[in-house]
Give the backbone structure.
Amino acid sequence: MTARPTFDITFPTQTSGILSPGSLQRVLNGILVNSVGGLRLGMIQDVTMEIGGVPSNGELYRVQAINNIAMGKDEKVYVGKDTAASVVNPLDPNFTRVRDMSMLDLVIDVAPEQ
């Protein structure tokens, strides 16, 4: 197995200093990030690939772990719009925003039995 370069990206903790259990959620195809405070992304250099028919220079990295939670090669990192607003430049070509029309919050109010 060939060794590939790795590095971590760590976001500063929030004023509370506590990473809440709801900060990360495992979803169908990856992990949903609800808070970036104290978040650590483990990055690994990805294999050389072509982008638009042009071979890359080998400087492509992907997330391999979030806070020591291993991620598969095809898993994605989802960041909510409100969460990303303070840390991601909306014009950055490395981040794309995709509207998810299938996500739904469902609240059921059931009256207690008497």
Q: What stands out?
A: The CA atoms of residues 81 and 97 lie 8 Å apart. The mean pLDDT is 76. The longest strand covers residues 40-45. The two ends are 64 Å apart (CA to CA).
